[in-house]
Amino acid sequence: MARRSFSLLKALTKPTTSFSLTPIPTSRSVTYMPRPGDGTPRAVTLIPGDGIGPLVTNAVEQVMQAMHAPVYFEKYEVHGDMNRIPEEVIESIKKNKVCLKGGLRTPVGGGVSSLNVSLRKELDLYASLVNCFNLPGLPTRHENVDIVVIRENTEGEYAGLEHEVVPGVVESLKVITKFCSERIAKYAFEYAYLNNRKTVTAVHKANIMKLADGLFLESCREVAKKYPSIKYTEIIVDNCCMQLVSKPEQFDVMVTPNLYGNLVANTAAGIAGGTGVMPGGNVGADYAVFEQGASAGNVGKEKMVELKKANPVALLLSSAMMLRHLQFPSFADRLETAVKHVISEGKCRTKDLGGDSTTQEVVDAVIANLD
After folding, report:
1. How far apart are CA 51 and CA 59, in angstroms?
2. What percent of the chain has pLDDT over 70?
3. Residue-wise over 186-219: b if at least 16 C-beta within 10 A, else e?
4. Which run of H or of E encompasses 146?
5. What are phi and psi of 233, to 5 degrees?
6. Is the sign of the CA dihedral 367, 75, 283, 213 positive or negative?
7. Is 227 helix (H, G, I), strand (E, B) or coil?
8. What is the C-alpha to C-alpha distance for residues 167 and 161, in angstroms, rounded to an integer?
9. What are the angstrom distances between the C-alpha of 123 and each of 89, 117, 119, 150, 314?
């Protein structure tokens, strides 16, 4: 009996070239177990917007339908040349709590206010978040870029308080309050804590605007003391721009006043692959509006609209953020994985990413890669 056992052990441990392990599947290994009622479709307000907006929002609609995402859209026509956002649109967003929108064209000069800004103020969407990161397979000048820009969304230079003192002299007021500064700082540190981020950097110009930016900085410092596990740093905005284009990988989460955040987010987006691939959203205590993270003038590119070659990736990734916000993480993961696979493969890319594909060709490729 002992001899037989030894022979069996010897046979089992003998090296063999014909033996091979069965590969373990890497696709969904654990099923998503929803609570009863989790599959009930959620209503989302949809604003196609201007320029490339209808193209890219239609791309999202197609992909959502293809993967049977539990959302449906209430669509409203809103354009940047309107005097105000129609009341029924505001009511729809307040009812649904969530909105997906394309860009709204903002007239330059002429005293016409931006409807993008008006919507954020109306709904108190005080935090803008733009995630700027390298996508696998997309060549960029810098690697290891993964920056989240969190921008105060309701005051600063965007307060819109301007008047002509005397002919030829205009005064524009920058408003900074302790309340808004503290809540955006708290949001940035909460985001960093919940997403396992290591550093929060406050961007400012307190060396010149000692009272306004000084108040913002003071608020960030007070909030930082409550999060000892997260490293807190500060940087002056002009040095920040220089550091971004030279060594962007040093930044993690950045918290900024309103105007600086717009500039920093678009700069970081350009470094990480372009505005066409950067997702973003605006969130407050009650409502959230998801849109392309960094626009940098994409809304007004009429040639892109005529040729139907707008890049839908940014809004597709923003809609994945929306799905996660709606607590549909498995759908968000599927969508992000499909988009990243298409980018990595490199066969379907719009002009801004070095290809010549149409919006629809990119959409078809994403749908084909849905798990």
Report:
1. 14
2. 88
3. bbbbebbeeeebeebbbbbbbeeeeebbbbbbeb
4. strand 146-152
5. -135, 165
6. positive
7. coil
8. 17
9. 11, 10, 6, 18, 23
191 within 8 A of 150, measured Cβ to Cβ: yes
Distance of CA 20 to the CA centre of its chain: 44
**pLDDT for res 357:** 92
Question: Please, are residues 299 and 276 in contact by the beta-carbon 8 Å criterion?
Answer: no
- 72-to-98, 101, 119, 301 alpha-carbon distances in Å: 11, 14, 21, 29
What is the rounded distance in angstroms from the CA atom of residue 335 to the CA atom of residue 70? 13
User: Cα–Cα distance between 19 and 32 in angstroms, integer?
Assistant: 34
Long-range contacts from 23-31, C-beta under 8 angstroms, 24+ separation: 27/371, 28/371
List, in order, residues 6 or more apart from 139 with CB less than 8 Å away: 354
Residues 349 and 323: beta-carbon distance below 8 Å: no
Residue pair 60/363 in contact (Cβ under 8 Å)? The answer is: no
Contact 116, 221 (CB under 8 A): no
Distance from C-alpha of 320 to C-alpha of 328, rounded to nearest angstrom: 9
pLDDT at 2 over 50: no
pLDDT class of 359 with cuts at 50, 70, 90: very high
